[in-house]
Amino acid sequence: MKLALGTAQLGTDYGIQGNGKPDPKEAGKLLDAALELGISLFDTAADYGDAEALLGDYLGNGGTRDSVRVVTKLEQGVLDGVPEKKYEAVLEQKIEQSMRRLKSCRLDGLLFHNAEYVFRPRAVEALIEEKYRGDVNQVGVSVYTPAEAEEALAYDGLDVIEVPYNALDRRLDRSGFFRRAKERGMTVFARSSLLQGLLTMPPERLPDFMGFAAPYVAQFQELCGEVSLSPLECAVGFAAAHPCIDYLVFGADSVKQLEEYARAARKGMDPEAYRLIFSKFQDVPERVITPFLWRK
């Protein structure tokens, strides 16, 4: 397992704790620290505010472009309302825009950010075709649900899949997805190991609208105490220990957060503690593990 730095925090206000995005100078320090820690893959998106442009400026000015990989995602509704015969033309235009912002002549990875496109074969075929045009090394999709993840496995031309995974969200373990993804040779990125910061927040400090999640957070943090790990160490260590996850994608809005996460990932989790956490949270309600349902 390797670490990949997500850049949603660099271009947008992100997560339940809502610390706000850092200014460009602080963002540069954060990216410097990531490289110093050996993190050489950055995960970004056209929808992450100015994150692509910020990354492009940083990598271009620092001369480090050749030593890192950048995986980006297309706009959420990139093909909505577009006739199928124009899919390739639209994707080519969007790829050119991302390459311009990233100051790169090639994209290391390009993913659909809207996972519903996996149910539109013509859309996936158009994305795969972009790989063979030569401007993109690998293509894939970022998914939210087990149904989307399973559908993505049906396409031989997809190389990468990004999934949500954490101690509370065990849906893909139950479905057998990880084993099938490895059999297909797909690279698996896992995000949301902290569930947008929920797992590390004291239950009593959760916003009123998140009260429904408090019992699960409290139970998780009690287990952390049992295995003598902090909530951060436990959440990160659990996800990092999964044998089928290739990259653990995480975000940070300060160098301190970045270093703490990387330290927790490298500390790891002993097998007995892992088995204990793995045996819990087999069927957590969708509302708890799905951030876009939190305010509904």
Total strands = 8
Report the portion of residues in β strands.
5-15%
Multimeric status of the protein: single chain
Major sheet, described briefly?
8 strands, parallel, barrel
Outline: globular
Task: State the share of residues found in helices, binned by percent.
Answer: 40-55%
Report the mean per-residue pLDDT as an integer.
94
- Compute the number of helices: 13
- State the separation between the terminal residues, measured CA to CA: 35 Å
Strand order of the largest sheet: 1-2-3-4-5-6-7-8
Q: Low-confidence parts, pLDDT < 50 over ≥5 residues?
A: none
Provide the gyration radius in Å. 19 Å
What keywords describe this structure?
13 helices, eight-stranded parallel β-barrel, 43% helix, alpha/beta, 296 residues
